[in-house]
Design brief:
The chain is about 40% helix and about 15% strand. It has a 6-stranded mixed sheet, sandwiched between helices. It is an alpha/beta fold and about 220 residues long. The longest helix has 17 residues. The protein is globular and about 50 Å long. It is built from 7 helices and 6 strands. About 40% of the residues are buried.
């Protein structure tokens, strides 16, 4: 574990432990790190905590100032950010959430291009930048400034993927389907998350959809 990033990202009480300055600098570092040799694309999701919008805007400001594009999945779950990051070939993903921590906490979780926890060496470099142990990063200029892009379609595609798991019929066993998608899931459980501030409506929607289909069938 590093100074800021633990097993579940950088978490703490907002504006005491985790501040907008931290979020901006994380965005600056990630946008620069992945954009050193191409136009980087970074997916961002958040839960429903009030501070999520503030941290999201700070991250996006940092990412675009470094010349990368930020794709906003809006309110969603951590597994959806992992899935979309991997499936849509984003350079990395960021989830703003503190899961089951109290509502006044929040967190920033970094996800690599494979949809997995960010490598320790990248997080270590990011911590050095946060602590002023690296030279200041260059700012993008003119047409090289990044864009903030609405990407709710990616979140909605993930919901469609979950429904496809819930509605698989005789042709293919769910475990095999999940294995082919590169996910390790229980064959009768959707990869949804409903912690403090997460998106519990997603699971309710799926349960209603499943009940509706079972009544028809």
């Amino acid at each position: 574990m590093g100074k800021y990033f633990g097993t579940d990202g950088f978490r703490g009480e907002v504006n005491k432990v985790l501040t907008v300055e931290h979020a901006y600098k994380i965005g600056r570092f990630i946008g620069w790190y992945y954009g050193r040799d191409h136009q980087a694309s970074i997916a961002i999701g958040k839960d429903t905590r009030r501070s999520g919008y503030m941290l999201e805007h700070a991250l996006i400001a940092g990412i675009t100032a470094s010349g990368a594009d930020a794709y906003m999945l809006h309110v969603t779950t951590t597994p959806s950010v992992s899935y979309i990051t991997r499936i849509d070939d984003f350079d990395c993903g960021i989830m703003i959430s503190a899961s089951h921590n109290p509502f006044y906490d929040n967190g920033i979780k970094l996800i690599n291009g494979h949809g997995e926890k960010m490598e320790d060496e990248v997080q270590d470099l990011c911590e050095k930048y946060l602590d002023g142990e690296m030279e200041e990063l260059p700012l993008a200029e003119r047409e090289n400034i990044g864009k903030a892009i609405d990407y709710a379609a990616g979140r909605n595609r993930y919901i469609g993927y979950l429904i496809s798991l819930a509605t698989l019929r005789g042709g293919q066993h769910p475990r095999r389907h999940q294995h082919q998608q590169g996910l390790r899931l229980h064959p009768h459980r959707e990869p949804a998350e409903a912690g403090e501030g997460e998106a519990p409506g997603r699971g309710l929607c799926l349960r209603r959809r499943r009940r509706s289909l079972s009544r028809r069938g």
